[in-house]
């Protein structure tokens, strides 16, 4: 599934630097998921955890520096102050202005870097090779009982190939899709209403309903109606022209690749499904239903058109939709908001794209640099964040202000709900927003839908809270399809070790990768804008031949080996 906020420009995760792309697991009775039964740790690790937990925490005031590229994050807020009260630790944020990765390189070259840096896998390796970060094994053994408990039987996956733990990020213990998850194709409420709320399963059915509505409503609020929008400018093209193919085929999201049952990796934009999707786009184009600016549009431009209420449908994951629906509702156009539904190439598709990896590995993995004094205090601080008490504080907030306990269950206060609705920066001001700890999001999230030892949820994102934030029209549309939340449209969750896009490609793929990507970006517009079927076939063949010529076979072979090596390492570390 496409991950929220950072999308396809995540830096890729190397096998040697993996923070642990694993299944969920738990070895402590203090944390559980919906139905999981905690597994016992070894006697040795249990004893170590018990001994560490029994030690009186050191809350002597201490401040550590930490880098961030987010200028809204500060330590002056209720949650941060409570963290200092509980751990003695304060963070002094070192703001990076400009290119974050370039700054990391400058710091490394000069040896002048903060105590804590949330790095991507490529830079973890750079810092490790330079001796700039410290291994965390002994520190976690001595001061990390909650870290070990939460990672459980998958703890060894934190280790790189040399056995050292170089970084740490979130571990995801949810066994179900997040209640606020949603399918990635969208279609306007009013389009569905006018058509009588039909069941839409295929791209052909989506085309028909769009075409009919445009004929009946060629303009919306005086502007030309756009049947289907997409954006090709800059990095967004991968998500807009490749990911729809993956999701319409019901496949797991491996970026610009697909992986066969035998492990063979192939380039997705040249698959038969890709040809079918490009034919769908071509049909939209030749009939005036595709956004005329598609090939010069970036994500912000696409969002702007959606916020005007004249885009009927698109492939738009929630992170692409952004706040456009809020803008539509604020403008008094709730009927222009979107239903989020799965759409396939053909009916009867068995959908395997609702997957969960057990950790938030990827970008934003916390490392402790050699410049840090008292690194044991940093690990103690992180360990508190992994504790049930720390999870409640950093995800629910302050009891009495952000949440209250009613009949033994936490629920957000009306005051907090109102503040969140009125102030987009409330998460910053309250301290619920933090420096990334992996693709999972803020602090060290265990994942929406995970339950803690008290049987209550680890985060306030529950089905009830999601429904509570829906407007009347959203609830009405969902009821027409027998659903309560958009996540109900998703197939059952499947657990996977990881995704190919999280792995760092070998150096041998760099040059052919640039050529192949360049070929695709240059030629796919010609394919989509072909004037007839014959020209489409000619342009498709030209694109395919050009990409094959530029080293596709070796490129795919290298990624096939990368995937095989990753799986071998993964299972070896698990002892399976």
UniProtKB/TrEMBL annotation:
Keyword flag Signal: yes
Classification via InterPro entries: Bact_solute-bd_prot1, SBP
Taxonomy, superkingdom: Bacteria
Keywords: Signal
Name of a matching Pfam family: SBP_bac_1
Gene3D superfamilies noted in UniProt: Periplasmic binding protein-like II
UniProt name for this protein: Extracellular solute-binding protein
Species classification: Bacteria, Bacillati, Bacillota, Bacilli, Bacillales
